[in-house]
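Reviewers of the previous submission asked for a worked example of the structure-prediction workflow described in the proposal, so we include one complete record here. The input consisted solely of the amino acid sequence. No template or homolog information was supplied to the procedure at any stage.
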Amino acid sequence: MKRCVVYLAISLLLAGCLREQPQIIVITATFPPLSEAAVLQPNTPQAGMLPLPTFPAQLIVPTPHSYTTLADVMPKEHVVKAGETLFVIAQAYNTTVNTLATLNNLANPDLLEVGQVLALPSEPLQQTPAVKLLPDNRLVRAETLSVAALVQSFNSYLPYARDIVTTRTANGAGLDEELNGIQIVERVSLEYSVDPRLLLAVLEYRAGWLSKPNPSPLLQTYPIISDLARAGLYKQLAFLANELNRGYYGWKGRGLRTIEFSSGQRLALNRQLNPASIAVQTAFSRFLGYEEWQAAVSTNGLYRTYVQFFGDPFVGAFEPVPANLQQPPLALPFARGEVWYYTGGAHGGWGSGSAWGALDFAPPDERPAGTLCYTSLIPVRAVADGIVARSGDGVLILDLDYDGNEATGWTILYLHVSETPAAGVMVRQGDPIGFASCAGGFSNATHLHIARRYNGEWLPTDCTQCLSEYAPPPFVMSGWVIQGIAGQEYQGYMEKDGVRQRAEQGRHTTINHISW
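From that input alone, the workflow returned the following structure tokens.
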């Protein structure tokens, strides 16, 4: 069948890093600490290197944050829901499988029953340090930055680093591409919408990648975490970005209130901190022991490294999402009269750590025999007027404020779309902008993944657990109001005019039919 859609510009796309449905998570062993110091001291310039940035005479410690509303009581128990594993539950409450298994006398942690009541650890009395490390706009990618320009004055290892990154094509096949370190930092920053300066500062703090042109072979392969399953810069940074997002959005919208170390020591997250500082504390607790972590989250840790290389992060600080933000009118991403399948409720915009603000829709055309990954013949359409800010690798970013900058204002992420118009093309609401496929991220069946951002921040579909200061506007498309289910990724409903449709995998039920 010949497509009748004509674009001002068309490009064939490749791939990225999301999942259509929760994958089975295998808990891998944690490998011994890196043989070099896990927390590196400020590096000494080597021969032939440019001088390192100098420290300010006195590091500025910002004043603590304050909240008008924050739940004083942590939940004491959890009721097991369909599809949940102990690992998923442990992540939701920032504890460990071992802690939950011990607390509940579980002989086999792999066996849970729907409706089973699990006791949760009580809130620790000791809080994390009240050291404000970063403003929120220095964690979220809220401005456009060139990674090459950020590191050009340093004799860094980044231009020489190489890693193979796999992107997925429309038919689901993987395409391997060798990228250098600068390209990988840029890619991870864009995918996860995390500020590249933070990623770079962690690379320097952990492995000296900004000040050493030739780190040890071990630190070249494992610059952040010593986990054999995450060898190489791309997997290391993707892990870091996802954990930073998990702390940031977990604190703002999913009830995250504690951290737990591999030793079993638990701390309450300090209520005087802002979400970005919480995110750094949480992410570092994932791969550092308690004493190393204390050093890392002090003013002489990552904060000092950041200031040394990128200046005072609190200059020009602002909240990416203003109070009382209103969503502009959005249409469903397909034509009026078409019936698509609502296959995925609220889940991560990019990776499970980000805000659960994405939805999945499968097109109504029949799959070719013998395959789940194909390029649909039915166009995906623009949900609003705007300009294409980025196009490629299965991704299209629609910028609703027309400045072409995806780090500012309202933007819509489309993922798993092929044959999209090029960056710079202006579109009207309802215009065709691509075809659902398996391109980009990870997808085992053709569908469209769509999510909202504002000033680079992922916005949840709805937010029953959000701090009131951060409550996002409801996600509404063509009058359909999206509702998630607390603690259940990929689940949820869409409601309109008294009709309630449920997210459900597959094409053999009417409960997930959506049209307008």
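The chain has ten helices and 22 strands. We consider this example representative of the routine output the project will generate in years two and three.
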